[in-house]
Amino acid sequence: MLLISCLILPLQGLSVRCLNRLVALDELRTLLARHARPDQQTAIDGVLISKVDRPYPPSPSMSGTVLALIAQGAKRIALGDRVYEYRAGQYLIASVDLPITGHFTEAAPERPALGFGLTLRPATVAELLLQAAPGDLPPVGGGAPPGMAVSTAPDELVDAVVRLLRLLDRPRDLTVLAPLLKREILWRVITGEQGAAVRQLGLADSNLSHVARAVRWIRDHYTRSFRVEDVAQLAGMSGSAFYRNFQAVTAMSPIQFQKQIRLQQARLLLATHPNDVTGVGQRVGYDSPSQFSREYRRQFGVPPSQDAARLRDPTLDPAAAGTVSYATV
Fold it and tell me: For this UniProt entry, which segments traverse the membrane (predicted)?
């Protein structure tokens, strides 16, 4: 599709730029394919590479706070009632660690899905914001932005990612140059279309940071019942402002968010304790086995006992082996 659009553009410099982008994306695919590992890790701290050769069924995971750039293939992510799709040349920003369901929709052995990921760290964002000159950045808006967003990657961002990945072939340069290039990538994102969400990530008193604090508390105490007013106070917001901003960021209410965390943790536990469905439900905070079974089935399509059998013996469902956890990248 990108090649066709390049060829039909008028010869006014735009087609040259488009072809340069094609070349950059092609090199990006080559680098990602060469350095992909099963655990997604690389020699560069905070940099992940994803390579998937078939479209696994949708599976739950936590998003992490990450920039994810697709070089080949396409991916769909569901967050609450929102659905995000991105493909080659597009990037996704997750500015809060959120419970998601995602899968690559375009992937094949002869043309695997390839993605680049960079962990977004609030301290690094804050440092860049402090170094920016007055007027370099637009003011942060009042409300909390969505915790996830998709945009087309500008050429400067793709170029910076390619130059960073080239360092994997030059280990001697990694220590000195990798931090500089990661900062350049982050700066491109901060000043780009989705920069507001990332800038708020680095501001301790932003609405996004307040919501992120509540998200961490719920994630760390997901087995406990809580009053929304108490979590709002912990986040440093009024009850009404907290509820409004929490839904804006996560696409869920705080109680729905807790339920997502509980069910994801239950599924991970069932992978290692498949014969203790009742005990797993209790461990994640369910007092009623029937409620646990009902909500689990609504979330994953099968009751926990049947899902446990699939997780224990993937030959019953070949896709089950790939559905316990899934990276955003």
Answer: none
Helix (H, G, I), strand (E, B) or coil at 185: helix
Our measurement of the distance from residue 309's CA atom to the centroid of its chain's CA atoms, rounded to an integer in Å, reads: 29
| Owner of token pair 């926990």 | 304
HSE of 229 in the Cβ direction (CA atoms, 13 Å)? 0
Going by C-alpha positions, the residue among 191, 153, 68 that lies closest to residue 118 is 68
Distance CA 302, CA 59 (A): 13
Q: Calculate the dihedral angle through the C-alpha atoms of 158, 160, 163, 165, rounding to the nearest 10 degrees.
A: -70
pLDDT digit string (tens) for 129-174? 999 988 888 776 668 899 999 999 999 999 999 999 999 999 999 9
Class of domain 16-201: mainly beta
Q: Please, is 123 exposed, middle or buried when counting C-beta atoms within 10 Å of its C-beta (0-12, 13-18, 19+)?
A: exposed
Q: Six-digit token pair at 292?
A: 């646990």
DSSP state of 41: B
Distance (Å, whole) CA 17 – CA 1:
16
